C-alpha cells in the first residue's frame, strides 16, 4: 500500500522537507500532488533519521506546507527508451516536447547509471571526423574519448557544437551506425531554436536525440538533463550497438545548478561556493563514456563549458580537465580577429590522439605532420613576441618565414566556414601546403621519406 504524507515540514528553494517518514530510499522518486496545480515529481536527495529532503523537479512555487500530498514510488527515476528516440526532442526530464507523442517501451531505464568498470573497458581507438581542420588535424577526437571544449561568454561555442553535430561521422561500414545525443542545459529559447533549425536544415535530425533544459525551466531539471541524455546514449550504444557522440552544453549551467541546490541544503561550500563533491559528481557523468568489451557500440563525449571570466583555473574547467582526456580551448583574441572557429591549438590537447591516427586510421603522415605544425606554431609565438620589440623588418629571413606561416595557419587552416566540411585528407594536405612556407631545414620532426613523398625532393 502506498503511503501518502499530507504535511510538509519546510519549503526551501527547490527543496521540500518531510518529517516522520519511514522506509524512504536515496534517489527515490516521489509524486507531489498540489491542489489545483496538478502532479509534480521529486527525488529524495538526503535522509537523516526520519527526516527526508526532496528535490522538486518542476520547482516549489504554489506549494504550501499543509495543502499537498507526497507519495513515495519506491524506485529511482526511470525513462522509457526505444530506437524511436532518434529524431525526437525532449525536455530536461525526458518528456517529449516535439508533439510526436510519447515513447513506448517494454523496459524503462534508471537514469542514475554507473561509470563504466575499468576492467570492462576497451582502449579507445579510431577517430571521429568532425570536418573541422583544427580538431581533426591537431586535436583529434578518438572514439570512446571524453574531450571537453573550454569556451567563454560570447564565444561561438554554440555554433561549433552545431557544426560538430551536423558534420560528425565515422569511416567505413559503421558510418550508418552513428548517432548524436545532444543535451543542452540552461540555454535561451533562441539558442534552442537555432540548434533545432540547424539540425533540420542539415538533414541530420533523424540521427539526433535532443534533451533541452531552457533557462526559464526549473533549475533542478539541469541536474537531471545530462543523466537522461547519457542513459539514452548507453541504450543506443550498448543495446543497439551504435557509435554515439554525446554533446553536453553548458556544463557551467549544470555546476551552477549544483551550487544552488547545495546552498539550499545548507551544505558547507568549497571553492567559489561550489559543493565539495562537485568533482565526484562530474566524474559520474564523464566516466559514462567509453567502449565496453563485447558490445558493438561506443560513447564519445564532448562536454562544453564557459569559463567564468575566461579563467581556466576556475573550479569547473579545472576539475573537468582532471577527469577528461584533454581539452579544446577557444581563444577570445582569435575570435576578435574574425577567425572561426577560434580554436587556440597550443593549450589544446587530445591525450588519446596518438592511438587513433596514422596508418590504418587517418594517414601515415598524420602523427609526424601534427607534431611539426605544433612546433612551428609554437615558434611563431616566440617570433611575434620578438617582432613587437625589434620590429618585423629586423627579423631574420627564417623568422619572417615563421611570421608568414603563422598568418597562413590562422587564415587558411584554422579559419573555415560554418558549413564547410573538410575531409581528413584535405586537412592534411593543407598542413603540407603550410609547411612549404618554411625552409626545408626547419622541417625536423617528420620522417624525411614522408617529406620527399609529399613535398618532393
TrEMBL record:
BP terms from Gene Ontology: proton motive force-driven plasma membrane ATP synthesis
Source organism (scientific name): Fervidicola ferrireducens
Domain called ATP synthase A/B type C-terminal: residue spans: 355-454
Sample GO molecular function, one term: proton-transporting ATP synthase activity, rotational mechanism
Transmembrane listed as a keyword: no
Family the entry assigns: Belongs to the ATPase alpha/beta chains family.
UniProt name for this protein: V-type ATP synthase beta chain
Primary role: Produces ATP from ADP in the presence of a proton gradient across the membrane. The V-type beta chain is a regulatory subunit.
HAMAP family for this protein: ATP_synth_B_arch
NCBIfam families: PRK04196.1
Residue stretches making up the ATPase F1/V1/A1 complex alpha/beta subunit nucleotide-binding domain: 131-350
Keywords: ATP synthesis, Hydrogen ion transport, Ion transport, Transport
Domain ATPase F1/V1/A1 complex alpha/beta subunit N-terminal: 10-74
Amino acid at each position: 500500500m502506498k503511503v501518502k504524507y499530507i504535511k510538509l515540514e519546510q519549503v526551501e528553494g527547490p527543496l521540500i522537507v518531510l518529517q516522520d517518514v519511514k522506509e524512504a530510499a536515496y534517489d527515490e522518486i516521489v509524486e507531489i500532488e498540489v491542489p489545483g496545480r496538478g502532479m509534480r515529481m521529486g527525488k529524495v536527495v538526503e535522509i537523516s533519521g526520519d527526516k527526508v529532503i526532496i528535490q522538486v523537479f518542476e520547482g516549489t512555487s504554489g506549494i504550501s506546507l499543509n495543502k499537498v500530498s507526497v507519495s513515495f514510488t519506491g524506485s529511482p527515476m526511470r525513462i522509457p527508451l526505444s530506437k524511436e528516440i532518434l529524431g525526437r526532442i525532449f525536455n530536461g526530464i525526458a518528456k517529449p516536447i516535439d508533439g510526436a507523442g510519447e515513447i513506448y517501451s517494454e523496459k524503462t531505464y534508471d537514469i542514475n547509471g554507473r561509470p563504466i568498470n575499468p576492467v570492462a573497458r576497451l582502449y579507445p581507438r579510431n577517430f571521429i571526423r568532425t570536418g573541422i581542420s583544427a580538431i581533426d588535424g591537431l586535436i583529434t577526437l578518438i572514439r570512446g574519448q571524453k574531450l571537453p571544449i573550454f569556451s567563454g561568454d560570447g564565444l561561438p561555442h554554440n555554433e561549433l557544437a552545431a557544426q560538430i553535430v551536423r558534420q560528425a561521422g565515422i569511416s567505413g561500414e559503421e558510418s550508418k551506425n552513428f548517432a548524436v545525443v545532444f543535451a543542452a542545459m540552461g540555454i535561451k529559447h533562441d539558442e534552442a531554436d537555432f540548434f533545432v533549425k540547424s539540425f533540420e536544415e542539415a538533414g541530420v535530425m533523424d540521427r539526433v536525440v535532443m534533451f533541452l533544459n531552457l533557462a526559464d525551466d526549473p533549475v533542478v531539471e539541469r541536474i537531471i538533463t545530462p543523466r537522461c541524455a547519457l542513459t539514452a546514449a548507453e541504450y543506443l550504444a550498448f543495446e543497439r550497438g551504435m557509435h554515439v557522440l554525446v554533446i553536453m552544453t553548458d556544463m557551467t549551467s549544470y555546476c551552477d545548478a549544483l551550487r544552488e541546490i547545495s546552498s539550499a541544503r545548507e551544505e558547507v561550500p568549497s571553492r567559489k561556493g561550489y559543493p565539495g563533491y562537485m568533482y565526484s559528481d562530474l566524474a559520474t557523468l564523464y566516466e559514462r563514456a567509453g567502449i565496453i568489451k563485447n558490445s558493438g557500440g561506443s560513447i564519445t563525449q564532448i562536454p562544453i563549458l564557459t569559463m567564468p571570466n575566461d579563467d581556466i583555473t576556475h573550479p569547473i574547467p579545472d576539475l573537468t580537465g582532471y577527469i577528461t582526456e584533454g581539452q579544446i580551448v577557444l581563444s577570445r583574441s582569435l575570435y576578435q580577429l574574425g577567425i572561426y572557429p577560434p580554436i587556440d591549438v597550443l593549450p589544446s590537447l587530445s591525450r588519446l590522439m596518438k592511438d587513433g591516427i596514422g596508418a590504418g586510421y587517418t594517414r601515415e603522415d598524420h602523427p609526424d605532420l601534427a607534431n611539426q605544425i605544433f612546433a612551428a606554431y609554437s615558434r611563431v609565438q616566440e617570433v611575434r613576441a620578438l617582432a613587437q620589440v625589434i620590429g618585423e623588418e629586423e627579423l631574420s629571413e627564417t623568422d619572417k618565414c615563421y611570421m608568414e606561416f603563422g598568418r597562413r595557419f590562422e587564415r587558411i587552416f584554422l579559419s573555415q566556414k560554418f558549413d564547410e566540411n573538410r575531409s581528413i585528407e584535405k586537412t592534411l594536405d593543407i598542413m603540407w601546403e603550410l609547411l612549404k612556407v618554411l625552409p626545408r631545414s626547419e622541417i625536423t620532426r617528420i620522417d624525411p621519406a614522408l617529406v620527399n613523398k609529399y613535398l618532393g625532393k
